[in-house]
Amino acid sequence: MNICVFASGTGTNFKALILSEKRKKIKSSISLLITNNSYCGAVQTAVKYGIKYKVINRTLYPDIPETSYDKLFLSAVEEQSIDFILLAGYMKLLSSQLLKVFRNRIINIHPALLPSFGGKGMYGVNVHRAVIESGVKVSGITIHYADEKYDEGKIIFQKCCAVSNDDDEFSLMQKIRKLEHKYYPEIVKKFEEKKIIISKNKVIVN
Ligand code: GAR
């Protein structure tokens, strides 16, 4: 499979996916990065590992109509013969034309146990701060199909970890990142092996 990663931030998950390809833990090729932010860490990682990247941001295309802007995403992935899309800290809603063609071939990772602590504005350290402030005793990661809303779509996989009394948002973020870097590539492998099946509104991972 040819994979495209969408990322807007530091890009540690993007890097973990690249390393899992290099270490032959996954068979797919990470062939393209799409970002809305040309200055993000993920772009530096793409340059370092020689992966093509494309910056798609409304401010770069001020004069084209919305449907043409929306089409840019689909054109970019079709140009690289992409089979599968992984969101790794991508902070924008997805293009509707892309979602139509790639339905059930786009997955997202979220640094908490959805459906709690998700939605607009719930990304990165904001999520961990909300978790700590709520006083819950467990947090974790959720890997799910992406749809037209933030952090919704059928859940594929979750893993939890304890929130200790002395955790703050930064220590919790470190714990969660370790889980993300370990399990995101493992779920990609399950896709490669066709071990993920959608059954009504549940996802079964064999
Ligand atoms: C990750 O923790 C990812 O789960 C989160 O953004 C972070 C990106 O980190 N995604 C969301 O919050 C989606 N709502 P990274 O840039 O270091 O991979």
Alpha-carbon distance between the termini?
Answer: 19 Å
Shape by Cα distribution = globular
Spatial order of the strands in the main sheet?
A: 3-2-1-4-5-6-7
Number of helices: 6
How much of the sequence lies in strands comes to: 15-25%
Q: How many extended strands?
A: 9
Q: What is the radius of gyration computed over CA atoms, rounded to a whole number of angstroms?
A: 17 Å
* Second rung of CATH, namely the architecture of the largest domain: 3-Layer(aba) Sandwich
- What is the average per-residue confidence, as pLDDT, rounded to a whole number? 97
* CATH topology name of the largest domain: Rossmann fold
Name of the CATH superfamily of the largest domain? Formyl transferase, N-terminal domain
Bound molecules: glycinamide ribonucleotide
| SSE string | EHEHEHEHEHEEHEE
Question: How many domains would you count in the coordinates?
Answer: 2
Outline the structure in words.
The chain has 206 residues and is of the alpha/beta class. The chain has two domains: 1-103, Rossmann fold, CATH 3.40.50.170; 107-206, 3-Layer(aba) Sandwich (Rossmann fold). 36% of the residues lie in helices and 24% in strands. It has a seven-stranded mixed sheet with strand order 3-2-1-4-5-6-7, sandwiched between helices. The protein has a two-stranded antiparallel sheet with strand order 8-9. The two termini are 19 Å apart. The model has no long low-confidence stretch (mean pLDDT 97).
